[in-house]
Amino acid sequence: MLLEAGNTTSVAPKKRQRAATIIARQDRISIWALPILYLVIIGIGFLFTFFDIFDINVSFIQTCIQIVPHCDPVTAGKYLGLPVLLNLVGYVAGSLILSPLADRYGRRDLLVITLILTGIGSLYTAFVGDYTNFIIARTITGIGIGADLALVNTYLNEIAPGQGRVKYTAFIFIMSSLGAFLGIWLGLYLTTPATPFPLGLPFAIAGPQFEFGWRVMYIAGALLAAIGLLFRFQLPESPRWLVSRGRLSEADRVVTAMEKYASARLPSLPPVPANLPVLPRSEQGSYIDILGNSLYLKRTILILVIWLVGYISVYSIAAGLTTLLAALQYPPPEAGLIAATGTFGFIACAVTAYLLGEKMERKYWLLLAGVLTLLGGIIIALSDKSFGIAALGSIILFFGFNIWIPMTYTWSTENYPTRARATGFALVDGIGHIGGGVGVTFIASVTVKIGPLATFVLIGGFLLAAAGLAQFGTATRQKRLDEVSP
Fold first, then answer.
1. With a threshold of 0.85, does the pTM exceed it?
2. Which of 60, 117, 135, 435 could in theory staple to 308 by disulfide, Cβ–Cβ 3.0 to 4.6 A?
3. CA triplet 381, 438, 421: central angle to 5 degrees?
């Protein structure tokens, strides 16, 4: 992990020992050892990211009617797939291009760049005049978001204590759930007409005099990105990354600050262990470093397939639930309200992951997620248009597919070494997003033909299949990062 090329002098071993000591000092800290404000700063960026992912869910019907000739609520579904697919292609491009730069030049600076890109993309979306430009704008936004997802999870897992990597990923996910909640409910308020409850939102404001609510949503997204960007400059660099680049004095300063912060909140810090972690020699952290290593190649193939299959379910619901329900003859305001109600399940799952995420191995959580997603979808399908039953199903559905996300985020980053952690996550999560785009396009095209029950069984089945594959993966709970991924 150090930059020294050889071990022929006494200098290199001393530096390697110093590097190992810095990592061991950080690993012995059992709590979040930076100001809580830093978690909030990271969370604000993720709040925007998930606002952007979910804002299309309800608002796209109004968007489609405005920018696509002859589009209506029933046919909107066939226009949803392409912008979602190319948005996710942008995810792939952004993560694969920008994330390796974070392994080379640092986590924090790239976190700033990714949020700039997403903000620009959201602002561009707000002012598009046709379907083509809408697709281009969503692609640009996706480039920033794809890299941001990889870098935030990488950074967080390198800073968080070993016993709390899921916990603090879930804390950020609570912010994500608030972004999703805001995106869907704001879409319901701004882009659907006032309709008596439970067929819609009685105080919604869309109508002949207000047909640009979807544009307001993307402007709001750009403002959220700007706020997150201002705060990200305060983040320290990852000490693990600094060590991996041989910048030991800087890493020592960050870890010393972490020790000072933790010491003020704990009776005492445990001693630095006598057996220091064995740090590997310097490698560049490139794709070749991962794909040319049999251990990481096998992990990459497995985790990539899991993301590809799982994201079919995730994005079919996150980006397409309202449109799918509208295609199944639900009035758009009611379809939007059912989807919006589901966000309460999103918030509940984020809190559950924060409180209980470390109680069970990551891959076992994925099985639970698949079962709940399937159950929630079946309840909606069998609700016979009863709003109360459909809303209950939506809450379970959102709890299920969202509990899958922080566990898989954490597990994916744990499966790669510090020298290539952002690159590895970019490979599996970035390319995995293609599954989401293809899945949304495919499921939207067959929904009317196969009906509600088969549609939701199909959606839940993909996530359950991904969870089954995860059982062949490695266990990572409460292990040091260098132990899981040397």
1. no
2. 435
3. 110
